[in-house]
Queue: 2 jobs
Job 1
Amino acid sequence: MIRIENVHKSFGKLEVLKDISMEVQQGEVVALIGPSGSGKSTLLRCINCLEMPTDGRIYIGSQDMTSPRTDIMKMRQNIGMVFQHFHLFPNKTVFENITYAPITVKGIPTAEAARKAMELLERVGLTDKKDIYPSKLSGGQKQRVAIARSLAMEPDIMLFDEPTSALDPEMVKEVLEVIKSLAQTKITMMIVTHEMGFAREVADRICFLEDGRLIEEASPQQFFSNPKSERARSFLEKVL
Ligand code: ADP
Ligand code: MG
């Protein structure tokens, strides 16, 4: 579903991704883990072309996202992204946040978009917040709306960039539960997270980045109990 081949990314002289290659199969859940500044966000942003790699290729299915002939806007409709800081439309209600893109970008009939929105609100447990504006929601509720909004486009891939890092501790769980329930569907997911317990439980595979390099790829079982690299080991000692 996602194939990253020898990707490099530099900002000026600073090389932040150094020859990253990895694949994610359809339906697989991959957790990206690593110290702050290791390039996790940049890698996710390269996958949906919010950043262009300086070198290398990224394929989504058979489509090369780095090719100038690829219709990036179209490809992006199939890739949902959830950020640390929600990015909801402040002047739209919860319901409008969710139905906006399906109606205006995808051309879904209003009634169908509305039905789908209600189904998604039920799934994230926010049916009663439908007509509320984002400013009236808690952080955990905002993030659940952001997830529902992404899912409304029916993406094959979901990218999460530290979805719980901006939340108060008591709200982390409600968001992780929603993501966990998604992991049981056949959607393909890449999740940047500092929640090690969550990564261990939900991910099929852990990818550990440090200083722009993919240092280690392993099953959660292997990674958390017996990491191969010294760098992963010392990272885990600090965070666990
Ligand atoms: P992480 O998500 O693992 O914390 P990032 O991908 O955000 O790491 O950042 C990796 C490095 O790239 C950092 O040194 C960061 O300062 C730098 N960086 C990220 N985005 C930009 C940008 N738009 N311009 C310049 N430097 C950037
Ligand atoms: Mg980041």
Job 2
Amino acid sequence: VKDLGRGDYEFFTEDMNKAVEERLILARELKLAVAENKLELYYQPKITQESNRLCGVEALLRWNHPELGFISPEKFIPIAEDNDLIIELGLWVIKSAFAQLISWQEKGLPSIKIAINISTKQLQTQGFVGSVERALHEFQVPPQLIEFEITESAAMDDPLKSIENLKALRNIGIDIAIDDFGTGYSSLAYLKSLPIQVLKIDKSFVMAMDKDENSAAIAKAIISLGHDLGYKIVAEGVETQQHIDALSSYHCDLLQGYFFSRPLPSIEMEKYMLSADIC
Ligand code: C2E
Ligand code: CA
Ligand code: CA
Ligand code: CA
């Protein structure tokens, strides 16, 4: 810690204490919320670029704390990862998404794919694949309707363990997508050694495409190279018609973003499904 003079120094440590304290409070509250089943999944549509059809949804965690309000997963997922809470929370997400899929089927709604975010720690936990298999069996979910989104860094971190589990998941019939693609350091050559089917271009590139030629060039290159290697490409963070026009000219397969819809609670998602053309 730099001594910036007495006042600044105290201010700084006070700030740090505050941050630590906030994390502790959130960790405790999160544990409670998980135990009491207080978290919820929202669903965001993925749309085919060519024919504007609903082709799947991504499940996204939402935590509405009675006093603190909505807390972003960007904030609480890392806290859950620091504890082992992510294992329990992650399995809750998987089972809830499976239950939702079956409930939609039972209501006669169209069968669309659900993508589930899996954290690095989950992927590398002993017994993870077994717990997924048991959940598939318990809810009688066809694995073809399930996709796992793994960040690029998760695949890179301890790659042997990751590859082993990814291969096992793939053998079960679950599709694997690399999330936030372009932000990590993996070469496409390395990716080829992983059993993946989908690349998701990180929203930072998509959202900068209008103003920044480099971002547009990167998005275009990812799509073109990705296609040559046999991957489907999803763009996230699609907010404007310009984004769509550019991504269409690059032949991106699927689009996801606020332009089409924000993530929706399941009731709202059902309405969306009823009014959408399905792929
Ligand atoms: P992600 O997996 O990259 O998810 C995409 C994020 O972008 C979501 O934020 C989504 O709401 C947001 N988004 C979608 N379209 C747009 C758009 O057009 N513009 C902008 N500005 N944002 C858009 P969200 O829901 O806050 O989630 C943040 C991150 O938290 C996720 O990033 C993911 O890494 C993590 N997360 C969320 N749910 C889960 C979960 O169930 N398990 C795990 N392990 N992580 C999760
Ligand atoms: Ca994701
Ligand atoms: Ca992402
Ligand atoms: Ca992300």
